[in-house]
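Take a record.
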Amino acid sequence: MNNLKEIAVRLYRSHKRTVIIWVVAIFSCGMIFKGLMQYPQIMRNRSEIASLEQKTEEERNRQAEIDDLSTKVNTDEYIERIASEKLGLVKSNAKIFIDVSDED
């Protein structure tokens, strides 16, 4: 009877090990499958990150241009240039040359 009990204990332990191995294997396969299913989303996110980084760089360049222009805006030279280009204004002591050649 003692021998029968030992056999039952060994059988129980070996069955227990088998069940644990199967549970770990199934769990591992499930995690691998879930990771593979998320791969397309990971690729889309990487693409979106690259696009956003490019837009960020463009906006930084734009901001640098705006900052550069803002330092020039309040100078007399810039004001004179805009007044002459956009409004057709000239200084009172400026010499104006008019082209009188006939270009028809």
